[in-house]
Each structure stands twice: as C-alpha cells, then as structure tokens.
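WARN retry 2 of 3 for item q-0093 after timeout on previous attempt; input resubmitted unchanged.
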Amino acid sequence: MSSAEVYLRPLFFSELANDDAGPWGRLAGGRLRFSHVEVIERPSLKRQILSYGDVAASGEQVIREALAALEEARAPLMGLDLSTPKIMGIVNVTPDSFSDGGDFYTHDDAIAQARRAIEEGADILDIGGESTRPGSEPVDEATECARILPVIDALAGEGAPVSCDTRKPAVMRQAVAAGAGIINDISSLTYHPDARATAAELGAPVILMHSKGEPKVMQKSPIYDNVCLDVFDALQANIVACEKAGIPRAKIVADPGIGFGKTFDHNLE
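OK item q-0093 returned
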C-alpha cells in the first residue's frame, strides 16, 4: 500500500451510537459517528470496507493520518460551531443567476430576501454579484461591487454573518471592508494570480469550491477518471497551495462544487 494513494470514506452514520458494540469514529469531532470505513487505493481502485476499530488500529501511517484528518474537530467559522451542520442562505444580486437571477436584483429586494433567510434558519448569508451559471459571461469589478457592497454593508451592520461570493481580489478587499467575514470563491482562489495572497492578507476564512473550467464552458462534456477522487485531489492541492500562501488550514473550507463542471451522474456520485 505504500506506493498507492489511499483515501478513506466513512460509512454507516449515527448520532445515537455508543461504544458498547465496538468503537465508532467521530466525524469532524461532531455528533455524527461512523462505524466503518471504505479504504480506496489509487491507481488500482481497490476497495475494502473495514470496521472503524480495524482502521484505527492500522499500522500504516498514511491511513492513520487520513483517519485523524476525518476526525479532527473543525475550528469555528465566524463564531459558528461547526460540530453540527450550518445553513448558508444564497442571495444573488444578479439578473441571470441560475437559481434566483433577477428575483433580488435591487438592493432593497436582496436585503429583504437575506433577512427572510435568516428568519427561516440560515446561519450565513452568501452575497454574490456575478453569475457563474453554465454559459455565463464574467462581469467587471465595478459592476460586481456596485451590486453587492450596499447589501453586504447593510446586512453586516445588522450583525448577520456574511460571505462574499467572488473570484476577484479587488472585490474581495472591498467586500471585507464592507463587513463580509468569509470569501467564497468558485475557482478555489485560482481565477486571479493575486487571489491567494489577497485572501491571506485579509485574514478572512475562505471557501474553496471545485469547478472544472470557466463557467462559460464548464458543462461542455466534463470528463473525470474518477469524479470523487479527482475532485478530492484537486481540492487537496488547492488547500496545500493556500496554506503555502499563508492561509491557515483552520480558515479553509472545501466545497465539492455540485453542478460546476459535472454531469448529472457526476453530481450523484
């Protein structure tokens, strides 16, 4: 196994488990526990399902390190306890986003929708001013800022945890100055050469999303050797690059990017 890449996939989850029937793992230090682990090797794609106890007792360093990463408690994000799932409310201040484009295009409508999301249980508000739907065209920095900054300023002023969905360093700077506490980048800080350095300087947590290609062309026959492992590898590489740029691991969140450069079957996998 030493020459293979190894991946661990936790299986069989429960919030009610105890160790009377054998040891259970604890996903990300939270309430959700798992009793078994699928061990996947690459490039052979050999798979075996083992009990948590057997995996925890493994003498393979690569397995011990991967298991420790699965179980390590996540640091709070903008004061939010990540030991339980959190809900992000999406508000696109755009005319053409795929989910709500045009619905909240005025500042007043966007702010009202964001307040409604908080009332209905959202923990974080994600404000975006550039559509990245399949086939979309980019917008300039000035347009993006004009769309989102008044919304971010109003919501942050009310104490709401706000993230800014942008790929551009100049927009990141102005959004954080307006009160955004998280940078959410669909390109994993790869769209602009200064993005990683800017995020590190700003010190805000970052969400690194996986996407395959530019939004304009990303849905044109996306191909993977193994979509789950390829996405994992790409995100892991971007996490390492961000750490090297000065962004602490505790401030990095990974997003597999459902629907971004993936077919329907890829999304299900």
